[in-house]
Write a structure and sequence with these properties.
The structure is a homodimer. By secondary structure, the first copy, chain A, is of the alpha/beta class. Helices cover about 45% and strands about 20% of the residues of chain A.
């Protein structure tokens, strides 16, 4: 059991160091009036598809860059650039299951964030570790695909606690899945009374205007330092 | 950058120690002729539903116990016992995103595995970390829900490399999702030429007999020490 305690202690130190760096990065971004949004979810919840639909609604209004974090592969950055024309870079985590504040800072430098209004990070597909590591983002958004089940807040509580916004994706598939929107919302409310919920279908466009408007308002608030 | 290297070194040591313990545990299980199956997937891919359907096909033929690993909650163990009547225990990982060999050993002792033919571990919903930590299981099965997309092997290659079997779940929903079974199979084949693929729907029962027969044969092989 000793080693497990040692592992937990090492992890606690890593998390504490990361938290400090994340707070520093967020302060800098606020001063520069650049918005940084961290998009998290399980693998395959539709992050990239959602992002393409969102970018197409926002790209003529504000200057946006996208950082795609993945263990491997470059498919997502290519897709984003092809479908939306927005600048996208790929960050490889070298096997790590999340992005931390240091990696965020490297990415923000690489994408030249000072010239942008909003940088969106598509985090590694994972409901656990990304919730533990503050990236320095001011806006934390998670996606729960309705195909994953309405019980997910019970199983991955930290992710739901850390998110400002929960997007229910793939709602066009609701007729073939047992997903109770009201039940999921009530699970979320118990964990995080402030979280906003946006049910969307990136495929049909349903609900996309509302989330785009929310993001735009947050970016404006950060721009005017409210 | 120093700290990141330190983190990677700590992780390498942890992984090496875990590997040794996993090999030891697997040897012991082989000697005792007890089968241990590790079931992995993303959150919400349908592990518990798949498991209930599988258990109902196997429970009259062999003695089975189930270990449900979760960060929190006890819903899965309760569901398994209610739906299948099989003995199920809940393992809480205390925030950890995977199960390791030590936690497996604790669980196998708690469920009294010496009196069983097969113990199935439902690992934490995560496509990354569980692939890195050998649990000591002889049979590694992963589920890819067709709602997650056919590109997942490109993004989470280690999970597909480490699995003996890939189950494509929720195939009853194929008509409403763009999932190309042949493309997904060809991605998997490039990573792991030996992996067997079983497309199933736990909802309609399609494909469940084939995977149940495969598991039964593996358990018989371990029983007869082939």
């Amino acid at each position: 059991m000793d080693k497990r305690i040692k592992v937990l202690e090492v992890k606690a130190t890593i998390l504490a160091e990361n938290n400090e760096k994340a707070i520093e990065l967020r302060d800098e971004l606020n001063t520069k009036r650049v918005s940084y949004m961290n998009l998290m979810s399980s693998p395959g919840s539709g992050k990239t598809t959602f992002l393409c639909a969102l970018l197409n609604l926002l790209k003529d209004k504000i200057k946006i860059g996208v950082m795609e974090a993945d263990i491997d592969a470059v498919v997502d950055a290519e897709t984003i650039e092809k479908v939306t024309g927005c600048k996208a870079i790929q960050l490889h985590t070298g096997g790590a299951c999340h992005l931390d504040a240091d990696m965020s800072r490297d990415g923000l430098n690489a994408i030249n964030s000072d010239n942008l209004d909003l940088v969106i990070l598509e985090n590694v597909g994972n409901l656990i570790c990304p919730a533990e590591f503050d990236t320095g983002a001011q806006i934390n958004v998670m996606i729960l695909s309705i195909t994953e089940g309405d019980d997910k807040p019970l199983k991955y509580p930290l992710m739901f606690k850390e998110s400002d916004v929960v997007v229910f994706s793939k709602i066009d598939a609701l007729p073939v899945f047992d997903f109770n929107i009201d039940l999921a919302k009530s699970h979320i409310k118990k964990l995080n009374g402030k979280a906003l919920v946006f049910p969307v279908s990136a495929k049909t466009g349903e609900g996309m205007d509302a989330i785009a408007e929310y993001i735009l308002n947050r970016v404006k608030e950060i721009k005017t330092n409210k």
